[in-house]
Design a protein that fits this description.
- It is a single chain.
- The chain is mainly α.
- Among the domains are: 89 residues; 182 residues, Helix Hairpins.
- Helices cover 70% and strands 0% of the residues.
- It is built from 7 helices and no strands.
- It is elongated, with a radius of gyration of 54 Å.
- The two termini are 78 Å apart.
Length: 420
């Protein structure tokens, strides 16, 4: 829109421009000294007053101006986005290199996913959804295997750098001190000392546990050696007592028959001698049974005492197993923790020494670099799998899921109608 002012408009800024005298500008190339006011000086005879008449005008060199760079047009940054780090080269996310890299990674993720282009026809969303589900299952399995490989590679990296740090600590301690790694080397040395202490404690605990187990095993063996013949003796006496008891019952039955005959016989004189003989046999057999039973009771008492002692030893052995197993496991856990801490300290020492260019073996350094590169490659592949798992089309899958649910509902309705 163009704004015009009338000829008599008092607010026209150009109305009186013709009546103004022309502005005289001084030539910037002319070296003209500033004019000082003439007249008596108000400074008097001050010795610090600079002379003004006899000196040439002061010439000042032009101040160099910094070059002005035109800003590159681009989208406005998001609110709250982090700005460039001072002192570091800041590459915009919308630079051509970043755009090409993002496009390349997107293409790689899409190729790895294999989901294909989303269908334009909504009816084709159902097979697309099924295909995405099957491919996602395969990708998850591949990602899990890749994560396991990455974990193994990371442990190998830790072991490699720990071996490098241990070699440097044992053979090149002076080089570590020279490159400012004395404190880190001392921490690694103390961690190794703690590991040795915990390992010695675990070995001592295990040795004491083994000695106590051997002592109890010997006591159990002695108790079993005492109990075994008593068991055999008990079994033998029990068999003998059974035989004697059977004979006692037989003789008692014979005595009872004689008594019955004696009651029914008209003359008891001939049977009286037989009755006394039978009574003597029963009494003698009873003495034998009582003696054998007493011997059996004595053996059974000794056997019960031996079995009780054996049970106590076995219970103590089981309790000792639980207690000592817990102590051994705790000691071994302490050893594992100390070993992990020492490995971490040594790995950090090896990595820092490699970064500080401490002189070291070419083979060890190359092995460490190769292990790092392998981990970086696996991490890139894992990230690519994550991007591939996120590359399916949400809208098509939502439509496919809706169609699948509708189809399942329709089949359910048909089934209900068929059975009713």
């Amino acid at each position: 829109m163009t704004t015009s002012f009338g000829d008599d408009d008092p607010f026209d800024p150009f109305r009186d421009a013709a009546e103004l005298p022309p502005l005289e500008l001084a030539d910037p190339s002319a070296n003209v000294a500033p004019k000082m006011p003439s007249g008596p000086s108000t400074l008097g005879d001050d010795p610090l007053e600079p002379p003004s008449a006899d000196l040439a005008p002061l010439e000042l060199a032009p101040v160099p101006q910094p070059p002005v760079h035109e800003p590159t047009p681009g989208p406005m940054p998001a609110v709250g986005a982090p700005g460039p780090v001072p002192g570091a080269t800041h590459v915009a996310a919308t630079s051509p290199e970043a755009i090409r890299e993002a496009a390349r990674r997107k293409a790689e993720a899409a190729a790895l996913a294999g989901f294909g282009e989303p269908p334009r026809n909504p009816l084709l969303a159902l097979p697309y959804t099924v295909h995405v589900a099957l491919r996602a299952k395969d990708l998850w399995q591949s990602r899990r295997r890749l994560a396991e490989r990455l974990e193994t590679a990371q442990r190998r990296v830790l072991a490699t750098h720990a071996a490098l740090g241990r070699a440097l600590l044992q053979h090149q301690r002076a080089d570590l001190d020279t490159h400012g790694l004395a404190e880190l080397a001392g921490q690694a040395q103390r961690a190794l000392g703690a590991t040795d202490s915990q390992r010695s404690l675990a070995q001592r605990t295990r040795a004491e546990a083994d000695a106590e187990k051997r002592r109890l095993d010997e006591e159990i063996a002695r108790a079993e050696a005492m109990v075994a013949p008593l068991r055999d003796r008990e079994a033998k006496l029990r068999a003998e007592l059974d035989v004697l008891s059977h004979e006692l019952r037989r003789r008692t039955a014979a005595l009872d028959r004689v008594k019955i005959e004696l009651r029914h016989a008209p003359d008891a004189s001939p049977l009286q001698a037989s009755l006394e003989a039978r009574r003597a046999e029963v009494a003698l057999q009873q003495e034998k049974v009582d003696a054998k039973a007493g011997e059996l009771r004595d053996v059974q008492s000794r056997l019960a005492a031996g079995l009780e002692q054996l049970r106590r030893h076995q219970a103590t052995r089981r309790h000792l197993d639980r207690e000592l197993t817990g102590s051994i496991l705790a000691a071994e856990a302490s050893v594992g923790k100390a070993t992990s801490e020492a490995e971490r300290r040594l790995a950090e020492l090896g990595r820092r020494a490699r970064d500080a260019r401490v002189p070291m073996g070419v083979l060890e350094a190359a092995t460490a670099v190769k292990a790092d590169d392998h981990v970086a490659q696996l991490q890139r592949e894992l990230k690519l799998h994550d991007e591939a798992l996120r590359s399916w089309d949400r809208r098509a899958v939502a439509i496919g899921g809706t169609l699948l649910a509708a189809f399942a509902l329709l089949m359910l309705v048909v089934f209900v109608l068929m059975i009713t």
